[in-house]
Amino acid sequence: MIIGLPKEIKNNENRVALTPGGVAEFIKNGHTVYVQATAGEGSGFSDEEYALAGATILPTIEEVYGIAEMIVKVKEPIDQEYNLIKEGQLLFTYFHFASYEPLTHAMIQRKATCLAYETVELKDRSLPLLVPMSEVAGRMAPQEGAKYLEKPLKGRGILLGGVPGVKPANVLVLGGGIVGTQAAKISAGFGANVTIMDISLKRLRELDDIMPANVTTVMSNHYNIKEAIKTADLIIGAVLIPGAKAPHLITREMLKDMRPGTVLVDVAVDQGGCIETCKPTTHENPTFIIDDVVHYCVANMPGAVPYTSTLALTNATLPYALLLANKGWKQACQERDELRLGLNVVDGKVVYPGVAEAFGLPLTDVAEVLA
């Protein structure tokens, strides 16, 4: 199979979907890899390293899309990439379709085969290709929140961990999954008073067993959230419904209950956000303020630490990418249920329920496109 590795062009996205080591694995399996010049530069990988691994370097993104049968990326295609995508071309990347309708319609129109990292799901309901970036984003959230709590950045002027004789900050984490667990762990490590909420009592019991003494578990419901935000200094949104839009747990009306300078970090923003007032921002302009509340809503947080993120992501994605290349996407999806669940849009048809529901589009049975 001919594999294409384009350079990510989303604002301040420095990750890359394949390392030189990953390219070498494709070459070893008899495939051809074309890499756009400087694609790996942001993550610390030179064109020379890719060439030594066996890739052919192409100067433009147009050439990469034009020759590849499978495009391997990190983030969803953006507007200027839509017309480069060929009918039947396989795109293996994060899509988060349910949060952005124009992307969905563009991929339907291009009749691409869209296999989304974020909906590849194992039998135990875990999401193996989302986990590594969730771990990075979860660990980054308190780090970014701590920074924006500083007064020059319009925060409350509170040190997350406090000092002897002065209380630490109060951190509220909404969601006890991978992101929430990592966020609570790092916040607790800073020395903050942490409250983590989830709708699963089973999960809260598990968290209660593994978290340090400065983390309190609380059942997530509207009343408890409304009470907790009144004293929270940093609120981290970490809610995920695989392949679907995140629910709004904090509404605009609720901002009035927060103290001026409270910081919101919505890690779920690439799935529509669990805080109503959060809209995607970039690393270039990461925050905005509504009702004196600081909103940090960067949709590709791990892009700020590309070396760590690229290695963590490719550790997870490479085995699946090789499977798709070795067997072809249809056979691979027939043999592996988790890959079948990764299919979102195929040949102009929506085959993932969460995407169809988000925009009221007709749903095609995935078995039909695999026949």
From TrEMBL:
Substrate binds at residues 15, 75. It catalyses: L-alanine + NAD(+) + H2O = pyruvate + NH4(+) + NADH + H(+). Residues 4-137 form the Alanine dehydrogenase/pyridine nucleotide transhydrogenase N-terminal domain. One of its GO terms (cellular component) is plasma membrane. It is an enzyme of class 1 (oxidoreductase). Its EC number is 1.4.1.1. One of its GO terms (molecular function) is alanine dehydrogenase activity. Belongs to the AlaDH/PNT family. This is Alanine dehydrogenase. It comes from Rufibacter hautae.
